[in-house]
Write a structure and sequence with these properties.
Structural class: mainly beta
Order of helices and strands: EEEEEEEEEEEEEEEEEEEEEH
Radius of gyration: 18 Å
Low-confidence stretches: none
């Protein structure tokens, strides 16, 4: 089997707390391992496990006593740096109408393939991290995944759940068949309706400056502005090896605006945005 990785990103957010958990398995030159990364507003931890402790079905990942899937998350980790236990239950998921990759889902040997399992679902429960209680009542969750060999060299990713909806946008440098192009995948869920924004539907970046990206597609226009730098270091794959350091904020300040046919459907500033921008010039040039 060639060098590869497979992982999920499960985010839970209440008015007071943010928590993202990334269970993953990876195969590089040094063999196979698996890991769980835990991200909060204040800190980030990475815990590695033997690869044979990783089990996966289409809807569930199990790593020792830790379970992740459509019904929720159960965490039980004890290391010198991290003690975490708790359970978070998910309400009904909101999956996409079809694969976020569109026709690119059929293209072999892509560097990275993205998936979105749920744009928005209710989260209920408590997690204790090093003795601190993280309570999720009337909270919302988001669930996505990635697989392939490496994360894109340069990309911007953001996600936010908000009153009446949820959104996700990724703008990345995509290598394919000896060329590079800017690939866009995104979804705006607004009042129960899904708006798909993607390269394969004609989306393109028309503005990229001052930490702002504007994407248009037909009569749709999405503005994303990062108002502070992503600050938490995470591990990301390079040819299956978890050796790259990227930076994410699971909860930071950002501005979003979504327009259709010139009419603004929503525009707001929030301190509950999740953001990755690698490298920073992905949003600053």
């Amino acid at each position: 089997m060639y060098n590869s990785f497979y992982g999920w990103y499960l985010k839970c957010q209440s008015a007071m707390h943010s928590l993202a958990v990334i269970p993953a398995i990876h195969k590089g030159e040094n063999g196979r391992t698996c890991s769980i990364q835990v991200i909060t507003d204040q800190d980030v931890w990475e815990v590695t496990f033997q690869a044979d402790s990783f089990r996966r079905t289409r809807r569930h990942i199990i790593i020792e006593e830790n379970r992740f899937g459509e019904k929720g998350i159960r965490l039980a980790i004890r290391t010198p740096q991290l003690t975490i236990r708790g359970q978070l239950d998910f309400g009904p998921l909101f999956p996409l109408k079809y694969d976020i990759m569109g026709p690119f889902a059929l293209v072999p040997f892509m560097e990275c393939r993205h998936s979105v399992w749920s744009m928005r679902h209710a989260v209920t429960g408590n997690v204790y991290i090093n003795g601190e209680k993280y309570s999720f009542q009337n909270a919302w969750g988001y669930w996505e995944g990635d697989q392939g060999r490496s994360f894109p060299k340069e990309y911007l990713w953001t996600q936010c759940c908000f009153a009446g909806g949820s959104l996700m946008l990724s703008v990345a440098d995509i290598p394919m068949a000896g060329i590079h192009f800017t690939g866009i995948i995104g979804v705006v869920l607004w009042r129960g309706k899904e708006y798909r924004i993607a390269t394969y539907l004609g989306a393109r970046v028309v503005l990229r400056q001052n930490k702002m990206v504007r994407v248009i597609q037909g009569d749709l226009e999405l503005d994303v502005r990062l108002l502070e730098k992503p600050s938490r270091p995470l591990k990301a794959p390079v040819k299956g090896n978890m050796v790259r350091t990227i930076h994410e904020s699971v909860s930071c300040r950002a501005f979003y605006r979504f327009r259709k046919q010139g009419c603004t459907l929503f525009a707001f500033e929030t301190d509950r945005a999740s953001f990755e921008a690698e490298p920073n010039k992905a949003v600053e040039k």
